[in-house]
Amino acid sequence: NFTRLTWQQMLSAVHCIHEERVIHGDLKPANFLFVRGTLKLIDFGIAKAMNDDTTNIYRDSHIGTLNYMSPEAIVDTGSGVDGVRMKCGKASDIWSLGCILYQMVYGRTPFANLHMVQKLQAIINPNYKIKFPDILEEDAVDAMRQCLRRNPQERPPIVGQGGLLNEHQFLNSNRRNTRS
């Protein structure tokens, strides 16, 4: 299925930059490009490199595309001297990948129906329930739910224990679960 194959290639591309200790920070469909049948990740305009001893980077401003922006990229963490630096790590890119998968499945992003201020509030509000209308592919919904957890520590890694690419049933046919 095209959605599964495309998302798998997106995960692989993002995993490659994470292995090089780079956080993209602005993942969206327009930043992926098919070149001779292979998906490539482009536009590293706001990407940040991480030091070997860090797991998150700090950004000085709210830059990114709101429909794909993680809660932690929006919320002021207050960790900078001026109180405006935001802590973003690999989990921020995972959130964005979840928004992209949601758009691939439903034809819109999770917060597309909201105006900007409502959208900002909904993204960061753990009490705002993201709607997952019925689809036959339960495993796709599970992958989206995991990626779109408000707490970044609760989001799955791309690879590793509970990894989206190597263990999640949506991308591993021997564990696939669909409704009849």
UniProtKB/TrEMBL annotation:
One of its GO terms (biological process) is meiotic spindle assembly checkpoint signaling. GO terms for cellular component: kinetochore; nucleus. Signal peptide: none annotated. PROSITE patterns: PROTEIN_KINASE_DOM (PS50011), PROTEIN_KINASE_ST (PS00108). Keywords: ATP-binding, Kinase, Nucleotide-binding, Serine/threonine-protein kinase, Transferase. Pfam families: Pkinase. GO terms for molecular function: ATP binding; protein serine/threonine kinase activity; protein serine/threonine/tyrosine kinase activity. Residues 1-171 form the Protein kinase domain. This is Protein kinase domain-containing protein.
